[in-house]
Amino acid sequence: xxxxxxxxxxxxxxxxxxxxxxxxxxxxxxxxxxxxxxxxxxxxxxxxxxxxxxxxxxxxxxxxxxxxxxxxxxxxxxxxxxxxxxxxxxxxxxxxxxxxxxxxxxxxxxxxxxxxxxxxxxxxxxxxxxxxxxxxxxxxxxxxxxxxxxxxxxxxxxxxxxxxxxxxxxxxxxxxxxxxxxxxxxxxxxxxxxxxxxxxxxxxxxxxxxxxxxxxxxxxxxxxxxxxxxxxxxxxxxxxxxxxxxxxxxxxxxxxxxxxxxxxxxxxxxxxxxxxxxxxxxxxxxxxxxxxxxxxxxxxxxxxxxxxxxxxxxxxxxxxxxxxxxxxxxxxxxxxxxxxxxxxxxxxxxxxxxxxxxxxxxxxxxxxxxxxxxxxxxxxxxxxxxxxxxxxxxxxxxxxxxxxxxxxxxxxxxxxxxxxxxxxxxxxxxxxxxxxxxxxxxxxxxxxxxxxxxx
Length: 455
What we know:
Helices cover 49% and strands 19% of the residues. By secondary structure, it is α+β, with helices and mostly antiparallel strands. The chain folds into two domains: 6-28 and 261-449, Up-down Bundle (Multidrug efflux transporter AcrB transmembrane fold), CATH 1.20.1640.10; 46-256, Gyrase A, domain 2.
């Protein structure tokens, strides 16, 4: 067996502890009166309707519009996309074509404080028609619309003195690129205002002709007159989703109570901690040192699963966590425990044949790998099928219903992430740590690995 540096165990161990702590508790700070989230934790997870409750609203065409079926389908698709852009997967969307009504149900945001359903649904009902106009008045010459925008995304720019401002970047289509170049040439030295519905969101002065088809929008309500992260993300999402074919009015709205009750989440947290303590005692008592290493890897697997739903990494948005999603995470944890038990048992079997410790670890980890891969690959295939079939595309929603679609998707997502995390932590990291720790002289007693003392 190729030896691994003795320091590797401590480096991996410290990294796993860091990821576990930060994924659970997050890292937060303050800048004056504003709180800053550096790393998101469990409290930033958006819990599903079944855990936290949510909002129900009924929308109808405004101004007496008699909507066609195609227009109703377009509204449904845009609301669908707006919810998916916010990474809300636990939602229900029911169009009533005969009465021109659309019923929407979705969970509260993770940082919701006021629980005002009227405020929560405003973003879904906004027309989101973006127009570029010459000058700063609403009746200015229309230059471009949101149809010429290829995509919108959020970033930051440096504003001087080490400060940064959040902006919404726009990339135009080929047609929009040409129109925008002509518009900036015509209005060089003047203002071009950007309107969202009937609101001017920015009115910058054109300093030069822009020919690369890229620009950014500044503005917002923070103390410096810029966007907050939430405002910028919401605006980019609405631009990407497109404009509704007609104005929507809110027929009725209200709140939905969680099906599990107020204290269900706390109870689940206590049960999870108790389960982890039991697993730790069992693994150490039965498998000794490999069991201890396996438990550390299990914490790493759990932290990766939490990261995938909390938005720990900025490039990945937070995920709506439902009861089936928690079930998928628990099942993947079980797969992680099973993988380490298989490896520990194979090492123990090898130790009782009288081979050297290094040889037993090498042979045991190698012989267990095929069984672990077979079991996990099967689960990965099933999880991918669940995600593709019951994901936001709603391929089978007509057969099983929209609610079922979202719930099964959540289960498949957390199951897939958990199994992938098992390969990273439960297979790769745990074997790396075991090979490293076996190089420490005081930990080379065969009994620590489940074998008998060599005669």
